[in-house]
């Protein structure tokens, strides 16, 4: 039980990897929402500036001018009371520096002559769920990692603070408002803003306003938490969809792959290809195609077996005759008998040579047809050229067609010529003396129809089904046996079917209801 390995489809792993990877890119993008964060930071600085200017003006009113009008003194108690009055409930820390750089007041330590009571905000008593706790742990770790890689200077605070500790304060003492951004070692960012304190356009000191980014970070964290929830929902749906696709696609493909892998000539008809007729998609098409391919393969194997048996049978006859003639020739001394046997041997050797040649051509036909290119051909011209060849001495064949019509098809000119030559030869061998072979060309919307009529004895009823079989021969009376291999019409049918056409044979019936000859009908797909 524990030793059984869990098999996970490679396709399922790819689906999960690609889908989840896209989600992680989306999640990573939300951890760097710079534009939103920058807007929040800018808003924070604008608030600091507003508060700072109000405070600077208020403190400026507490400045006392000395008797010589050259010295302005900030009244520390009044300044501290102003800080208390204006920013008592503010989360901003205010520090006031004199013109000499000394720290006069600090809102975090003392206000006026009273020690400030430090307030600490209690944690939210609302119980957090596991999902939120998980998010905060991940968020804190990522934030700490980002803080370590940050280039921001570390905020340090001396026990006795001076204006020179803060660059922005020094600039403020020279009349320039200045911002700065630092971070604590924990990663918390500190925003600072320094403004000059002046009266009658003379600078008497500077105030430093600082605030941490907890407010911004809380907003960002809440926003990212919502994104995190959406991410997990999308992740769950992605996994469900990937598993569904795996079951819906991978499982049937595995079944088909197992069948394809298990195809073995020894099993033959025992192989069963699963079908998915309830599905109207590519999986069903694949199953049907695989079944058709298997059936074609089995049919081809059967055809090869039958072909081998037919070849053996056809070759066996001339070999038997040849063997008998050779044996008889070795036992007789009669010259006339030896000459007669020699003629038989020569005829049998010629017959064997013709059979081997025709069988070789027939066996290569499928492969050659699959390699040969099809192109636009004029069927009428092909037939006319062949008829001209046959009629070079005597007019044996005539053709009837409509000159205004076009007889164009997609095919191989050489192979179609071979078909018409075989049928003309067959028709001429059966035709009555002084009769001409008639060829009729017709067209329909999508077909070219060629009828080839002879005036022979026609086709016997028992031969209609066999006339296109391999090695089948039925020759006219008086014709020497063995002159034909019986492959001509079979080759013609194979070529026509490779052109997506059809060929049939039937008897012509005259007005008296008698057989007036044979008719071969060839149909090819017409093109414009």
What does this entry look like structurally?
The chain is an alpha+beta fold and 528 residues long. 50% of the residues lie in helices and 18% in strands. It has helices at 10-30, 34-60, 76-87, 130-148, 167-173, 214-261, 282-331, 335-371, 379-390, 413-430, 488-498; strands at 63-65, 72-74, 93-98, 103-106, 110-111, 114-115, 178-183, 189-199, 202-212, 375-378, 397-400, 408-411, 437-443, 447-453, 502-509, 515-525. Strands 4-3-9-8-7 form a 5-stranded antiparallel beta sheet, sandwiched between helices. Strands 11-13-14-16-15 form a 5-stranded mixed beta sheet. The protein has a two-stranded antiparallel ribbon with strand order 1-2. α2 crosses α3 (76-87). The relative contact order is 0.07.
Write the layout of secondary structure elements.
Layout lengths: L9 H21 L3 H27 L2 E3 L6 E3 L1 H12 L5 E6 L4 E4 L3 E2 L2 E2 L14 H19 L18 H7 L4 E6 L5 E11 L2 E11 L1 H48 L20 H50 L3 H37 L3 E4 H12 L6 E4 L7 E4 L1 H18 L6 E7 L3 E7 L34 H11 L3 E8 L5 E11 L3
Parallel strand pairs: 11-13
Antiparallel strand pairs: 1-2, 3-4, 3-9, 5-6, 7-8, 8-9, 10-12, 13-14, 14-16, 15-16
Helix pairs in contact: 1-6, 2-3, 4-6, 6-7, 7-8, 8-11, 9-10, 10-11
Provide the residue-averaged pLDDT: 77
Radius of gyration: 51 Å
- Model regions low in confidence, pLDDT < 50 over at least 5 residues: 111-115
Helix-and-strand structural type? alpha+beta
Distance between the termini: 69 Å
Counting DSSP E segments of at least 2 residues, the number of strands comes to 16
């Amino acid at each position: 039980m524990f030793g059984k390995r869990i098999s996970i489809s490679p396709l399922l792993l790819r689906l999960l990897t690609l889908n989840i990877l896209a989600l992680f890119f989306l999640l990573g993008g939300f951890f760097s929402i710079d534009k939103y964060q920058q807007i929040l930071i800018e808003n924070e600085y604008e608030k600091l500036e507003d508060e700072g200017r109000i405070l600077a003006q208020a403190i400026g009113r507490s400045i006392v001018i000395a008797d010589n009008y050259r010295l302005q003194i900030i009244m520390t108690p009044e300044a501290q009371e102003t800080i208390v009055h204006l920013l008592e409930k503010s989360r901003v820390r205010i520090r006031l520096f004199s013109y000499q750089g000394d720290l006069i007041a600090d809102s975090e330590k003392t206000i006026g002559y009273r020690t400030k009571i430090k307030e600490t905000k209690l944690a939210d008593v609302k119980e957090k769920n596991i999902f939120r706790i998980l998010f905060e742990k991940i968020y804190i770790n990522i934030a700490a990692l980002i803080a370590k890689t940050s280039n921001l200077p570390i905020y340090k605070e001396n026990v006795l603070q001076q204006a020179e500790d803060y660059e922005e304060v020094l600039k403020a003492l020279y009349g320039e408002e200045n911002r700065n951004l630092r971070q604590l070692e924990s990663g918390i960012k500190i925003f600072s803003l320094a403004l000059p304190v002046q009266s009658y356009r003379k600078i008497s000191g500077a105030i430093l306003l600082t605030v941490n980014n907890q407010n911004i970070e809380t907003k960002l964290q809440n926003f990212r938490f919502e994104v995190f929830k959406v991410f997990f929902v999308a992740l769950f749906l992605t996994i469900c969809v990937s598993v569904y696709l795996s079951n819906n696609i991978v499982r049937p493909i595995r079944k088909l792959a197992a069948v394809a892998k298990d195809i073995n000539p020894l099993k033959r008809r025992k192989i069963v290809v699963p079908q998915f007729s309830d599905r109207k998609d590519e999986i069903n098409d694949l199953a049907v195609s695989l079944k058709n391919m298997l059936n074609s393969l089995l049919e081809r194997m059967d055809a090869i077996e039958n072909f081998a048996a037919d070849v053996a049978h056809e070759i066996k006859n001339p070999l038997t005759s040849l063997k008998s003639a050779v044996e008889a020739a070795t036992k007789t001394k009669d010259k006339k008998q030896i000459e007669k046997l020699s003629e038989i041997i020569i005829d049998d050797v010629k017959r064997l040579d013709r059979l081997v040649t025709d069988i070789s051509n027939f066996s290569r036909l499928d492969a050659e047809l699959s390699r040969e290119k099809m192109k636009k051909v004029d069927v009428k011209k092909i037939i006319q050229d062949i008829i001209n060849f046959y009629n070079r001495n005597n007019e044996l064949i005539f053709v009837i067609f409509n000159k205004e019509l076009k007889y164009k098809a997609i095919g191989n000119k050489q192979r179609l010529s071979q078909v018409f030559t075989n049928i003309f030869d067959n028709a001429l061998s059966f035709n009555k003396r002084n009769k001409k072979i008639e060829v009729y060309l017709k067209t329909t919307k999508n077909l070219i129809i060629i009828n080839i009529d002879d005036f022979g004895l026609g086709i016997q009823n028992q031969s209609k089904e066999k006339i296109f079989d391999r090695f089948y021969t039925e020759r006219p009376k008086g014709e020497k046996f063995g002159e034909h291999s019986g492959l001509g019409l079979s080759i013609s049918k194979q070529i026509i079917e490779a052109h997506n056409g059809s060929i049939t044979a039937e008897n012509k019936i005259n007005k008296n209801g008698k057989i007036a000859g044979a008719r071969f009908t060839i149909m090819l797909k017409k093109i414009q």
